[in-house]
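Supplementary notes for students who missed Thursday's class. We covered one full example, reproduced here. Read the sequence, then the structure, then the short commentary at the end.
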Amino acid sequence: MALRKVRTIGDPILYKKSKDIKNIDEKLLSLIEDMKETLIKENGVGLSAVQVGVLKRVIVVQPEADGEIKVYLNPTIVHECGSSIMNEGCLSVPGEYGPVERPEKIKLKYVDVDGNELEKEIEGFEARICCHEIDHTNGILYTMKLYEGEWDDENDKEIDEEI
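Structure (token representation):
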């Protein structure tokens, strides 16, 4: 395992679309372990492979501090409902936060590390993290989706960890 350098805003790779995972091999499993280690070291709650310079559709999420790190390969949102606006941050945009509207609940289609195609309903903070990371795999940073309407941020909890 090794720490990977997190690419930051302005790096051209962050704006490129990632490629689907075709094979689960030792190289991919090593990347996933590196991403987990990097996520923990950076105190993040989510990380996509593109953020460490690899154009593969891999995301890792850890919605609860010291909780399980979940791995989603080729993640796709097949259904969403509800919406909420919250301040988001990003390991690739250090020190910045801004309001983004996201679905409250999603149905995620993905492949697990054993190669199984699965679907899962996810809600709340984990759904927000997944949406944020899937955007990364499509070359989209949260700064491109900042909410510009009126909203009351008193009900918006401040996110201490960066996605």
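Commentary. Helices lie at 26-41, 124-137. The first strand starts at residue 46 and ends at 48. If anything here is unclear, bring it to office hours.
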